[in-house]
Amino acid sequence: MAEAEKKYAVITGASKGIGKSIAKSLAKRGYHLLLIARSGDELTQLGQEISLQYQVEVNTFPIDLALSDSANAVVDWINQHEYKVTILINNAGYGLWGSFANLNLEEQLQMCRLNMDTVVRLCHLLLPLLLREKQSYILNVASTAAYQAVPTLAIYSATKSFILSFTRALRFELKNTPVSVSCLSPGPVDTGFAKRAGLDAFSKMAEKFNMKPDHVAETAVKGMLAKKSEIIPGFSNIISVYANRILPKALIEKIAAGIYKT
Hints:
This protein has 262 residues and is of the alpha/beta class. The chain has a single domain (3-259), classed as NAD(P)-binding Rossmann-like Domain (Rossmann fold, 3-Layer(aba) Sandwich). The chain has ten helices and seven strands. Strands 3-2-1-4-5-6-7 form a seven-stranded parallel β-sheet, sandwiched between helices. Helix 2 links the parallel strand 2 and strand 3. Helix 3 (70-81) packs parallel to helix 4 (105-130). The longest helix has 26 residues, at 105-130.
């Protein structure tokens, strides 16, 4: 691929889990990568592995995306190097488990900044670049938790509901443009999410239902490139989302509270 024709994919939260697997899936398809995450050493190592295995260019930018000016810093870096961005994967995010009243307020607000604010900023700041291309894509990562209120994951599920709603609206607004917008809503994935969220007890049960990141990533990339609106990997997750649409909200919340009880 000639230098002027290089196509780059921006992936946040790329050092592990779904982001790491999406990076490999896109590299396999010949996309060059711009990997963003907090872990500089992990990013560098991953970049070297992917570049060697798939013969693509991989550039890394370590930064804490929960910081208020992080999106501007990322886009400044992209513009400075004149990368031709055709894909934006907003994958970075995390959850906190526990009673809203008992969880630290600042930590919850920091989660909101990463899960929502950074996504919105990157979409807005990178849209001018994406609109220049003949075909480009945005994939925002939500969760099956986006389809319901989840007691003890109240703020996390709310942030993912925001992402789902925002993505669907943005997709409609951009339907007559070269930018296709999709939302990925995975269920439990073997990524260490439960451990970081403080869900140690639930993590043991989740092991029985966890999907592998590589499987989720491949489903996500195929769905994105096929211009699907919502991508829900796994038959059981599709069924659960459908159930959330037809069953009474009070019943769904009671079931969720029982699963994630403190």
